[in-house]
Amino acid sequence: MPQQTEKEYKEILRQYLEDQSEQNLYMGEAFSRKLIERDISPEEVISIHKSALKDVLPGLPSKVWHSFDFLIEMMIRYGLALKEHQSLVKRQEEMQLEMEVASKVQETLLKTKIPVVEGMDLGYVTVPSRTMSGDYIYFVGNDMDEAGVAVADVMGKGIPAALCMSMVKFGMDSVQHSSEGPSGVLSVINRIVEKSVNDSMFVTMMYGRYDAKSSTFSYASAGHEPALHYRASENRFVELDAKGLLLGVSPDARYEEGSVALERDDFIAIMTDGVTEARTPEGFVEKETILDIISSVKDRPAQEMAEHVFAELDRMQGFRLQDDFSLVILKKE
User: Fold this and answer.
1) What pLDDT, on a 0 to 100 scale, did the predictor assign at position 102?
2) At how many degrees (to 10) do helices 287-295 and 302-316 cross?
3) pLDDT score recorded for residue 269
4) Staple partner for 306: which of 104, 125, 129, 199, CB 3.0–4.6 Å?
């Protein structure tokens, strides 16, 4: 331990004990910066203080000196724990920064635009439960007569899920101008995911296409949550389910395709399990409750409907989403 440091500290301590002025405290504060610059550990500071005190106040009882030895041992352990904690905090801050940057990249990469289709009102909400989202919504619109929408959910969270979703986006870009129906589109995406994504990552996805000329909505599903078809003339919901393996399981997977005719004020609701498996402290939100929430705003525009459903389920969950939330509404005008 440098003798010069001990000498300087002893003089500052002596002056403080004699005067106890603000100036003395300021000198001590300034000296503490020198200790940091000289890389002197907390336990070494205590040793310096003990040594200086022996010269300044030599008549103190022996138990006082023993207490400093005890404090030195404590500070050694404390210093090690503090360094480990600071290192962990730094790593967490760096990781959080990386996640925020990755989130912005994901937001830009997965940005989609609602197409304008004659006789169809479209709206959607997608909100991640964490920094990165494992849900994905993609609209396809080549002309005024037709529009497609994909809703996907990666089984996983964070950066791995986001990277997986980027492959789905790549696949959707490749079929944007294709004449393939929903089952064909899922087959293409499935082969891309199966080749490009880790075996532990799987994706559910529903792809639907609306044809304005015939007012029909055709759809196919890769293990995704069934879409809901609200029939205005009957005032009831019908599930649109279609058989199909999750994306990435098998390159030879085949996807069943269905089709429904839409009448005025009918709508299709496509969602991820963040909607259907919303949880409150009492348990999962009942399916009938979700249907009632959707039905209560059936006369509003599609975007308002989606936003209302999110707001209600978010409120019921105490404004703490347990899973990524994604909902698309396609409403026949």
Assistant:
1) 66
2) 140
3) 98
4) 125
